[in-house]
Every structure is written in structure tokens, then in C-alpha cells.
Write a structure and sequence with these properties.
The chain is an alpha/beta fold. 32% of the residues lie in helices and 19% in strands.
Length: 285
């Protein structure tokens, strides 16, 4: 799935919480990593916190993102942030303009609200992936897989191992992301349509009661009555601390339907070696 060629410019933004200034060295590392891939990074002027956790107003951050979408020289956009604030920009985005200037947009965690909103409003593919993985603990593998997948027309970063929890096959369009953050779209026009979709869910933090209540909300929204399958990603806190009941047991209990296919992967989530999954892309397992 080649998205980029050497010499392409790519935008770097922070649509959620602003970064600490202590991240400047990391951003310089990212700049160099992208340059080594042959890309030309163009960094937003509003990456870092300038007041509390804020790196500008919602409108200012949305304008920066829109400018990158409208700039024909920018071939893709990567968000390097996370936290809690990303849904604040949604009302300031012009989705018609985005639809007319489609280009790859990447983000994870709290950016689940943006990548799903963009998909739901434009039918554009977006990418659940954190570009900072290129400078993380598994940088060598990540750089190789990123290059293979998005610059050489391979698929290594999109191919993940999984095990069946129930069922034996699923096929459909993927929506979802961080299960807590995605729920911020509930009741808004930005929530994706779950009818006949495959929902992907993962979580960095959250103990058993939180996972139980979040998944119950998805059930009460009617999500599990509409989807054709569920992909569970990494649930970092629960799995690290070996909490019980585990996420598989909780999900099966709340979904309450053995006919819905469910798979579990530990290769998509907040870990530094995480794979990418395409929101709006078709998957067959």
C-alpha cells in the first residue's frame, strides 16, 4: 500500500494535549528518522504546551490541521499527541474541504476521535498508528515495516498475529480505536456507523471496572447488535497487572452473543512495536 515517495513532504501536528518541551529532543529524532526515510517533515508551530496542557485553542489547532490538508505539497499528516483534548477540534474542521483534499492522516489513542470522525464524515481511510514508534524501543523493526508498507507497497505493518476468542471468520470495514476515547463521539454526528462493521478496541489504562462500564456503554448504544465482528487489541494496564476477569472474559460476558466473531491481538495498541490498522479499510480474518 504505497502512500509516500522519497521527497514527499509530511505534516506533523498535535491535535490533543500539547507536548512537554522535554519532548523537543524526541521530535528532533523523529525529524531525522523521517529524513532518513526520504521524507521531508513539516512541523506545526503549535506542538508544545504554552498554557497548562494546551498548545493553542481548539480553533487554532483545527486551522493548522486544515492548512496541512489544503497544502498540495503535504502528502500525509501524522499526529504525535495523545491525552484528552482531541474532540475539541471537531466542530472547527471543514469536512467538505478535507474530502476534496484527501490525504493519509495518522494518529492513535485520543486521536481515535479524529480519525473516526474524518472517516464518518468523508468516507476517507485514516490510520490508527503513532509515528513516534519510528524512534521508540523497536525503532529498527518499525522503520523497516513502515518503509515496506507505505513506501514500497508491502503490507508488513498491516499484518498482525491474532487468536480466535469465538467464531472462525470475519470480514468487513474497520472502525474504532481506543475504547474510552471513541465513546466521546457517542451521541454526536461524528460517531461512525457500526452497521455491518468490524469494531477494533484497545486501551492503555483502565482496570476491570472501567473496562466493564465502557463495554457496557457500547452495548447500550447498540454497537454489538450491529457489528459483524470484534477485534480486541492490547489492553496494557489490565494485561501488565494480570487483572481478572481478563478482557476476553469481560467482552464475552457483555456482548452475550456467541455468534459474533471475536479475535484478540497483542500487536495493535500503545506498545512501541504496534502495528497499524486502517479505519475505513476492509479486513478479512
Amino acid at each position: 500500500m504505497k502512500l509516500f515517495s522519497k521527497g514527499d513532504k509530511v505534516g506533523i501536528v498535535a491535535c490533543s494535549n500539547g507536548l512537554d518541551k522535554s519532548n523537543e529532543l524526541k521530535m528532533n529524532e523523529l525529524r531525522e528518522a523521517l529524513k532518513e526515510l526520504g521524507l521531508i517533515p513539516v512541523f506545526s508551530d503549535n506542538l508544545y504546551k504554552n498554557y497548562s496542557v494546551f498548545n493553542g485553542s481548539n480553533k487554532e489547532k483545527a486551522e493548522i490541521l486544515m492548512n496541512f490538508f489544503m497544502d498540495n505539497d503535504i502528502k500525509g499528516i501524522f499526529d504525535v499527541s495523545g491525552g484528552d483534548l482531541a474532540n475539541g477540534i471537531l466542530d472547527h474542521l471543514n469536512f467538505e474541504t478535507i474530502k476534496n483534499n484527501m490525504k493519509p492522516f495518522f494518529g492513535y489513542s485520543d486521536l481515535s476521535v479524529v480519525i473516526n470522525a474524518i472517516h464518518s464524515q468523508t468516507n476517507m481511510h485514516t490510520y490508527l498508528y503513532q509515528i513516534r514508534n519510528l524512534i521508540g524501543d523497536r525503532r529498527e523493526v518499525q522503520v523497516e515495516e513502515f518503509k515496506n508498507t507505505f513506501m514500497d507497497n508491502g503490507s508488513k505493518l498491516l499484518t498482525f498475529n491474532y487468536k480466535w476468542v469465538q467464531g472462525s471468520a470475519m470480514e468487513g470495514i474497520v472502525v474504532g480505536g481506543n475504547l474510552r476515547c471513541l465513546l466521546k463521539l457517542a451521541g454526536t454526528k461524528y460517531m461512525p456507523d457500526f452497521k455491518d462493521k468490524i469494531i477494533f478496541l484497545e486501551s492503555l489504562g483502565g482496570d476491570v471496572p472501567k473496562m466493564f462500564t465502557y463495554l457496557t456503554q457500547y452495548k447500550q448504544l447498540g454497537v454489538f447488535e450491529q457489528v459483524k465482528g470484534i477485534i480486541l487489541g492490547e489492553f496494557s494496564e489490565m494485561e501488565r497487572e494480570k487483572q481478572f476477569p481478563n478482557i476476553l472474559e469481560i467482552t464475552k460476558e457483555i456482548v452475550g452473543n456467541s455468534n459474533i466473531p471475536i479475535v484478540k491481538t497483542s500487536e495493535i495498541g500503545h506498545n512501541k512495536g504496534s502495528k497499524c490498522i486502517i479505519i475505513g479499510g476492509k479486513i478479512k480474518l
